[in-house]
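Onboarding guide, step 5: your first structure request.
Type a short instruction followed by the sequence, for example:

Predict the 3D structure of this protein.
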Amino acid sequence: MRLPQARLDQVLDRFRQIEARMGAASDGGEIVRLSKEHAELKPVVDAVEAVQRARAEAPDLEEMLEAGDPDMAAMARDELEALKLRLPVLERDVALLLAPKDRDENASAMLEVRAGTGGDEAALFAGDLFRMYQRYATLRGWRVEIDSLSEGDAGGFKEIIAAVTGDGVFGRLKFESGVHRVQRVPATEAQGRIHTSAATVAVLPEPDEVEIDIKDGDIRIDTYRSSGAGGQHVNKTDSAVRITHLPTGIVVTSSEKSQHQNRARAMKALKVKLYDRQREALDAARSDARKSQVGSGDRSERIRTYNFPQGRVTDHRINLTLYNLPKVLEGEALDDVINPLIAEDQAARLSALEDEFG
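The system replies with structure tokens like these:
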């Protein structure tokens, strides 16, 4: 892909404007906004300048070829061949940086895992999935804080909701949203028959500042005593908080020990849910123009199967099959699934950019 010079100049001009404005700005809010845009554009500018340097080399090398000096011509020929290989790679790097991207790519996220069809086995599988994401988060240096959970009768979780905090969480986990299916022999199965169960995963972006206006009259706040397995850590007071957003029917809960903390966390969760609803509406409006369904976020779609007898993991969206199921569920090899999904999404964004440039 050869990017038009006018498009590259546009990036450089905007960067220079920001730098000039940063030197003159006195308003704190404007300085923060400009600094954020400067940080976002800096890697793009570096990549653009690398392309421009490479493009500028070509005429000089061609002149050396025609200069008549055999040794210089041989050297120029080698460098020109290397340049022809290097320049498309540099241009692709710029194209990826310029391609339309999810504005929440670097955001933290709310992770929701719920048991689906399959009874106790579905709850156990939901527990396996949550532990997979928990271990993956640890490997990447992210923090996981559980907001609420409902345990399964035989173990695992009927539902568990957690905040995953760190750089680029949503960008890496957003393709996990959907129905995950497991095929295995349950521990309670006396005859060794393989059962199929399912769990659903939802990953919602949690931007630093979610600008959602919530009117007091639109919410109902209830306090209650959270349930537990018994012992000293069971709440003795009505400290758990449930907030219902009346216009949409969205319900969020938080059940830690502090009612004040629970209220703050539940309000944050509600804002994330409402923000996600806005994202879904925007995605639906753009659905006709989508090149790929990889990042559709359709949580009713069966996206992946974990087959224990064969040690197989299959992602149905990109027809990817791996035979390292234990390591995937340990979180160690989850990148082996996520990276191809990201690559597929990048290819779709590049395709959209190619259409733009004709």
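Each response can be followed by summary notes, for example: The longest strand covers residues 195-206.
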